[in-house]
Amino acid sequence: MGKITKKIKQIQKSDEKTKFRWILGCSAATMAIVIGLWIGFTKGGLTTALPEVTTKPSFFRVMQAGMEHILLSLRQKTANTILYFKNKINKRNAFSIQIPESVSNTPALPTLDDATTSDSGEIGVIP
To answer: Do residues 124 and 118 lie in contact, with contact meaning Cβ atoms separated by under 8 Å?
Structure first.
């Protein structure tokens, strides 16, 4: 048997306090290895992925950019509102007259097609 298997057998036969210390120590060592590997792999990727930090813009530059954004937004909303009302004013209302069924059952009224004109130019209806 190897040294490692002998040590494992010895830990298995020992009291609970010793077993707990070995578990705690091995877990801490494993966590340290995993965290070390993780930091090693991410550290190389972070330096190439992050851009260089430049100086911060001044307060007035930030304020100017904000005001430009607000004015542009206000200009667009005003133009949209004017266009909306212009379309409302120029819109023609369309409507249709529907004849109720109670009226449609009545006899038709005479039209100009049914009328005749006399020599004097008066329009008369043929009975």
So the answer is: yes
